[in-house]
Amino acid sequence: MIRDITLGQYYASDSPIHRLDPRVKIIATLLFIIELFIVDNFIGFGICAAVLAAVIIVSRVPLSFIMRGLKPILFILFFTFALNIFMVKGEVIWEWKFLHITREGIQIAVFMAIRLVLLIIGSSMLTLTTKPLSLTDGIERLLSPLARFKFPSHEIAMMMTIALRFIPTLLEETDKIMKAQQARGADFESGGLMKRAKALIPVLVPLFVSAFRIAQDLAMAMEARCYHGGENRTRMHEMKLKTRDFVTFALEAIFLALIIIEARMF
Amino acid sequence: MSIKVTKLNHIYDKGMPTEQKALTDVSFEIADGELVGIIGHTGSGKSTLLQHLNGLLKASSGSIEIGGTDITRPGVSMVEIRKKVGLVFQYPEYQLFEVSVAKDVAYGPGNLGLSQEEIDQRVREAIALVGLDYEKVKDRSPFELSGGQKRAVAIAGVVAMKPEVLILDEPTAGLDPRAHKDILRMIREVHEKTGNITILVSHNMGDVAEMADKVMVIDGGKLVIMGTPEEVFSRGELLKSVGLDLPPITEFCNELGIKDTVLDMDTAVGKIVDLFKE
Ligand SMILES: Nc1ncnc2c1ncn2[C@@H]1O[C@H](COP(=O)(O)OP(=O)(O)O)[C@@H](O)[C@H]1O
Ligand SMILES: [Mg+2]
Predict the structure, then answer these.
(1) How many domains in chain A?
(2) ipTM
């Protein structure tokens, strides 16, 4: 049940995409998102989709696994689609009482839906192919120039690492506590809103207690190993760009150029 | 009340890359009033099996009859099952949440829709039964008790529901020897007083040998052997092959060359005296 949440999940494999430097993947993902907003016609979306499809094939992440991550956002997708299709003004082609659909509305709604789907699949490819730890390492390195301006890039990366690391732990803990209270006759599935909210107290209290206990244990363990933040800290895995990373950059540049030219032309 | 499990299978995360078969064709029967010990290596599927017995997990296939009702069939009331089958999870003290011990113990009985007097009565009984002083602990916060006391309160929370089947998943894990003994004594007392079926998962072979009427050995999601402690602990080789040990006293007597399977201290002393006489 609660374990089915896959958002931000990592899919273990040893594909060329998995092996890329996390910094390259982060930048490529950001560029991909920007490109999605530059594009405003079907040919452009076609190019984006083709690139994404190629990445998925090379990454060897099963399509069914990616699609499962889409399910939770289906509602948002539907909502924005409906909003766009009915709200945008323009040439009216269908009308019923106060509802009217315009040609422009359809176009914007369809483009927005495609954009959202590509955006979510694209960004989930980043988390699916990058271990949370490399991801935060990458973010730390990308933000490190800001350290000169007293920006706490290491601390922020460390906080993200810990948060990511403990999502599964806390989900597991929630699952366990819910089951334990169900065994004591708790009922989370029936009753009105108030009753359901009240039924959650026996889950939330132990969960908070657990979270604080875990936090305390972790802090203690880190201090016992002399953790003292980012200064003078060396790393076990030095990040070095390899040939494949430069090749990826080159491909990304071509892709970006293509998108810009295409957007200008049409 | 009796339990009959037939060809029970459980697969976690079916259809996912992380899919895992946790139980394979497990079949057994437990008669009324029996105390059953379950032993097995970590990850062998013990906790998974327990959660099936009160409907917290859905079987991939197979049937589970509790007192004649097949609980794997659709439409069976889970509340009814959980009234009959009480499950104490591993480290149950992490489920405490109320402001006072008495209130926490009352949570389970409260969910059964009993009258307030009945609930109060049961809370009193259960707290006394787990070896705590009701008057002393009733208004204290469960969070300020010692580890062993917390565990006792958590067990009382399930005992107060008066289940006909009481299941405990490693109830003594992580306790000091004194609290360990207290908890086991308490489990035995509850069992004798109520005549319920008690199912106990333990890593301590000595405890199981001493307490259980029947012993189940699980390995890799399969039921390897089920029988009386004598039957099971006479199979030293089999137990070793699934990563388990004999109870220390049994092992000791084996080393001395005593042929019988000795499970308790008194018998052991008698046998050793016999050995000297020879
Ligand atoms: N909630 C779960 N999701 C996925 N796999 C699980 C879950 N719980 C247990 N497992 C797996 O099922 C197997 C049996 O686990 P469990 O029943 O907890 O064993 P035991 O209690 O004997 O240590 C293990 O391999 C474990 O990794
Ligand atoms: Mg277990």
Answers:
(1) 2
(2) 0.87
